[in-house]
Amino acid sequence: MKFTTLLGVTAAGFAASAVAAATTTTKMGVEQPSSTPIYMQPVVQGCFSSSGDLVYNSTQAFNSRGECGQTICQAMGKYVGASTEGSKCYCGDSYPPNSTLVDDKYCNAPCTGFGQDACGGTGYWTVYNTGLELYGVPYANDTTSTTSSSSSSSTSSTTTLAGGQTVFVTQTSDTTAKKSSTNTAGIAAGAVVGVVAVAAAVGAGFFIIRRRRNRQIEEEYRRNQAVNAFFSGGSGKAPSTSGSHSISDSRLDPVMSQRRLSDGSIADNEDYSRRILRVTNA
User: Fold this and answer.
1) Where are the stretches annotated Disordered (predicted)?
2) Domain count of the chain?
3) Which residues in 12-28 are b (16+ Cβ under 10 Å) and which e?
């Protein structure tokens, strides 16, 4: 009697344990934790409340992470795949905006092809990295988590996903290089224009000074010509400087003209250069 009772209790215990185990292992619509991307393997990157730039592809009767992320999106050469409402598959080349990353509990719709996994939810997307681009996939329209480096053409960001996994993302971009090239070209053009302007100013100054100098020389020459013409009696020849500095006059007495006159003598007030007829009373 006691033995039969013991067997009944033991059987009941095993049955309860089996039911509990079955309930635990068959829990449906569980979002897989985010993890580091793996080459050529679809890996969950989190639950998002927006599809971002992802484009709807198809509704799959047997949708799953492998079906949407690998069979469909990876085969198309897309970097990102996403599932929503259990059966719908989206593909693209960028994650949804990082600001739309939410807790994994919101992605709770069982995949139609593998019900244990979650394939998004109503208004939520389970996003996969398809394995084609591991660390260069950007976030759509999201600049809040990126830090630009002026010395390179890449943008780096550190993102902590809902599962606690930290992912370092490097996005290659030639925007900085283009800006740097544009700035360099602008600086070079400005320098050339500045040099040309300085050279033009120097040339103009030299021309003005030279023209002014030539004008002064011409004026001085004209004055000298006028003086020479005055002293030469209009003949255009400069007066002779040899011998006496006095000017010859044909009306002068030749004898008296050769007489040396002393400066300051008492006879200087008399004009001895001409013979004068004087009348006296005898």
Assistant:
1) 232-251
2) 1
3) eeeeeeeeeeeeeeeee
β strands within the chain, DSSP E: 43-48, 55-59, 80-84, 88-92, 101-102, 125-129, 146-148, 154-160, 166-172
> Residue 211's pLDDT is what?
84
DSSP assigned state of 281: -
Q: Is residue 63 a contact partner of residue 88, using CB atoms and an 8 Å limit?
A: yes
Q: Is residue 208 part of a domain?
A: no
Q: Give the pLDDT confidence score for residue 5 in this predicted structure.
A: 46
C-alpha torsion 59→135→42→121, nearest 10: -50
Mean pLDDT, range 199-209, rounded to an integer: 85
User: Which DSSP state fits 243?
Assistant: S
Does residue 76 contact residue 91 with C-beta atoms inside 8 Å? Answer: yes
Residue 260: inside a domain: no
pLDDT for 206 equals 82
The closest alpha carbon to 127, from 155, 153, 97, belongs to: 97
Tell me whether residue 224 is in a domain.
no
**Domain annotation covers residue 9:** no
For residues 202 and 85, the answer to whether their CB atoms sit within 8 Å is no
pLDDT at 246 > cutoff 60? no
- If you average pLDDT over every residue of the chain, what do you get? 75
In which band, very low, low, confident or very high, does the pLDDT at 192 lie, cut at 50, 70 and 90?
confident
Look at the block and give the residue holding tokens 């593909």: 91
